[in-house]
Amino acid sequence: MVRNFLLRWCTYRATWFVLVFAVAASGATPTQAQNNIERVTVASEGRDDVTFDVAYSYGGSEGDNVFISAIMANNGKISSYYAHRPGGVQRGRHSTRVNLSVNQSAPNVFSTNQIRVAMYVGGKNPFMERSFFFPKTWSRPGGELQPVLQIVGGVKSPADSRTPITPSGVALGGGAPIRRVLPNGHVELRYPDGTIRERYRGGETVTNPDGSQRRLSYASAQWPTPPSAPPDTTHAKWLDAENTRLLDIMRTMVGNDEPSVQHYLSQESSGISTYQQITSRTDAIGMLVRP
Asked: Is-contact 191 177, C-beta < 8 A?
């Protein structure tokens, strides 16, 4: 009996020693939280800024001088036009607020399709990052083109009216479309929920997420007839600059997708006047800018 008791006691002590050694060797404690950026929601949005609420967990591995930032990106490439105000990080599971806006060097209108949210020690590089799908057309105050605000939709619970954003290039529910110009010159808008709108002169075709389609025809008044006489030298320079500016706006609206711009140019009738070019490009921008 004494022998069995001693055997059990030695086994218990050996097991306890192995457990304590394993915890000490790993340098971890059972209650230490894992560092993670869990969820991002839109708290408020304007034409030139967005405020995000970021839910996170932090175990304290990098000390106490830790922050979370959000910057804009386009197809994985960081935009140089951002400014941000980071949020402070505490140990445990919490939420912090981060503001992202355009900086002074940004053009009047430009588009991005991602945000990159990072946890970092003040003055150092991030020790963890996550990218989220968030397409938005940014517009500085005084910009000549009204912005198309990208509000990522989703089911909202009564307790939380903020808009959720998901990683891996997927937005919940509806949301802002990705805009492209097709080889036939039609404008295509692809929405995160799978809806596709194909717009062209006189109407559009809507393809629903289930594959069903509906076609819409529009009745519109004839554009005013452009002047027949060629412009003088001064006016010609201004019109050429206007034509270039309209093409630049179109390029911005499709997220600098050069094939879309070339598709449009390939369908623009050759031999038309500068006035007709302006009309055609204005019409295409109108199809792109509508939500």
From this structure: yes
Residue pLDDT, tens place only, 22-63: 333 334 443 345 899 988 988 888 888 999 999 999 999 999
45 forms beta bridges with 50
User: DSSP secondary-structure letter at 213?
Assistant: E
| Those residues with Cβ within 8 angstroms of residue 180's Cβ, 6 or more apart along the chain or in another chain | 187, 188, 190, 254, 257, 260
Task: Collapse the DSSP code of 2 into the 3-class scheme (helix H, G, I; strand E, B; otherwise coil) and give the result.
Answer: helix
Under 8 Å between Cβ of 55 and 98: no
Domain edges within the chain: 36-165, 177-291
- Whole-model pTM: value is 0.44
Closest to 270 in 3D by CA, of 280, 260, 261: 280
Residue 253 has pLDDT above 90, yes or no: no
Provide the 8-state DSSP code for 251.
H
Phi, psi (rounded to 5 degrees) for 88: -75, 155
Distances (CA, A) of 248 to 25, 47, 129, 226: 60, 19, 32, 22
CATH architecture for segment(s) 36-165 = Sandwich (2.60)
